[in-house]
Amino acid sequence: MTENRSLQSIRGTRDLLPGETEAWDVVEGIIREVMGIYQYREIRTPLFEDTQLFTRGIGEHTDIVNKEMYTFEDQGGRSLTLRPEGTASVVRSWLQHRLGAQGTVNKLYYLGPMFRQEAPQKGRARQFHQFGAEVIGTDAPEADAEIILLVLAVLDALGLETWALHIGSLGCRECRPGYRDILVEFLAGVESLLCEECKERMKTNPLRILDCKNEGCRLATAKAPSHLDHLDEGCQIHFNAVQALLSDRGIPFTVDPRLVRGLDYYERTTFEVLSPDLGAQDAICGGGRYDGLAQMIGGSDRVPGVGFAAGIERIMLALEAAGVELDFEPICDVALVHIGEAARQRLFALCDILRRAGVACTIELFDRSVKAQMREANRREALLALIVGENELKDGMVTVKNLVDGEEEQVSFEDVVSVVLEKLEKMDDEAVDEEPQDWSEEDDGSEPEPGEAA
RNA sequence: GAGAGAGUAGCUCAGUCGGUUAGAGCACCAGGUUGUGGCCCUGGGGGCCGGGGGUUCAAUUCCCCUCUCUCUCCCCA
């Protein structure tokens, strides 16, 4: 068995290449900026955890735990799992480090890879990336509303304007069993119409039957009693309050009586943000309240918490579908162009001096023609070219060419750094004058009328 | 996990009803312009036709397996 096939990234994972990483940097930067404005602080938890954190937190009977986790044994025989989501880890960390010891409310956010062994397709990978935020320590409906407003603020800052917000309530520990009984009673009457999987769910998690996409199940459960009609007083008041807070901010939303999330730790508020541009995998964000989670993973008390998680790949796809441009090329200020070996050496040193002065420089490492070096400079949209050949070496000069207007001048080696800095500053000012930044948010109303063609 | 489609140059794709040197556009390199970018012209380098096996005188083409991607179901971010 000497198979020697070329190795590649494994199914469901991919490389982010130059050209993509820049866009990711932009997106991640915007996420962090908005998190800062909302006063959420970053938490970074390990990529793998004790398997029990997820089986107990997410739930034994969920798809994630049942068939999607990357679970392995370490050398000590402990069962470890690559995190399939972020919330359980954040709450675990919150408990472990007693972040709530002072009775304060903690606002935390995270950003990073998650792992689920699913069939890869558009908008779904085995290693994918989420950012999310959690408010731990309060059951105030303002926390629920803020979490939703926060993710919408991120989407807005990214330029993603088309989305649909669905919200629902699952009730709490107190009222859920009552509803569950009512639902099971109803479902028993239509059980013969349900798919096999749902018949199984009757025993394990009947609430999720309402979320089944199977045609037969949908019809059979069309008239099922809604959880929203069986909330207890506290849950009803809470849900009303969340809705009122969103309405006050003019946020459009749809109350979805059948919104059931795939993780067992949710109580009360649940929500999803959907993108109409994505097709089958249209959920770009999901979240809700999880007041029982801390106890499920070993905390001594119930700890109120609410949060969301959003898929970065899906947001990227939605941005692309919406035509939002994120691409940008790295800036190159100066291209160093040599003619001959001696000049090349001289420029190599100058290049590093300029770089240490903060000037982005490119220098030829092969021995290509001047024409090729200039073409490279043009490709990188360098502002200046510094050209040195035998003539310049003889006179101790550098030819400084402005690549925007084509003007050239000779500068001594001693002065070249300060001259370059001066010219770049001047060119930068001119560029700003020509293209005012758009953070003014002012719409001058001069948009061309649609349908107006020449 | 189940079903469908696709893999040919760095990229986007033609093509071979099985047959001799497998093509285009873009990109790249060089020359036209003795040391100067963008436009133009000319030329050039690049391909185990995804991998393995089978049928055949002959396979990139047909068959099987496998890997990967895309889409759907399911589930989720």
Chain-averaged pLDDT: 87
Main sheet properties: 8 strands, mixed
Q: CATH topology of the largest domain, what is it called?
A: BirA Bifunctional Protein, domain 2
Number of DSSP E strands: 16
Shape assignment: elongated
Counting structural domains, the number is 2
Order of strands in the sheet with most strands: 1-5-6-11-10-9-7-8
Number of helices: 15
Architecture per CATH nomenclature, i.e. the level-2 architecture of the largest domain: 2-Layer Sandwich
- Assigned CATH superfamily of the largest domain: Bira Bifunctional Protein, Domain 2
Helix content: 25-40%
Which stretches of 5+ consecutive residues score pLDDT under 50? 437-454
Q: Look at the helices and sheets and give the structural class.
A: alpha+beta
How far do the termini sit from each other? 67 Å
What's this, in brief?
The protein is α+β, with helices and mostly antiparallel strands and 454 residues long. Helix content is 37%, strand content 19%.
